[in-house]
Amino acid sequence: MLMKLNWEITQFKNSLVSGEAPALLEHVLPAYHAYNCAVTAWHCVDWAWRFGDKYIHQAFADLLGFSLHKDNRTNLRAFVIGVTHNSRAIYICRLIANGSKHMKLDRVDPTIRAMSVWARRENPSNEDILSGREYGTRFYIVDGSDRLAPEEVFDQAFQYWHHLFQQVGYAEPSFVGPDDDT
Length: 182
What we know:
Number of helices: 7
Structural class: mainly alpha
Largest sheet: 3 strands, antiparallel
Distance between the termini: 25 Å
Strand content: 5-15%
Order of helices and strands: HHHHHEHEEH
Low-confidence stretches: none
């Protein structure tokens, strides 16, 4: 799922580049890819929990600060709460994925909005200007008073999952070389 999320994010970023999509799809393709990113980032919750055994579930509980119960549904709910409290990006992806799919959520957060705006491209090339592609659809996620680029939110979601998956053994630890600052 982590590799799929990375692939979805790459597809979204590529769709933002002028001329990468057929002209007919150029204005909708990024929205489709953004939705796919949000859905995949959100569904990592289900995959991570259902793939794990009792030891992985205990590791998640320890990392996220909740107690396991006999009822798996209660445990999954606690896992969801832990993840969305620890990652604003995952919380945002949840709202986008479920809000887009169900059109109405039981719990609405008015501080989060996904929006698209028709605007002049940043630094359009001469080719963009000559071909009439000087303007395009720009996507934003509004989080309170902040306007975020969706790719930043999706990258943060990826980093969160990557780190959490490393902690429970779903992903290998990252190599830190002698020249790395981190």
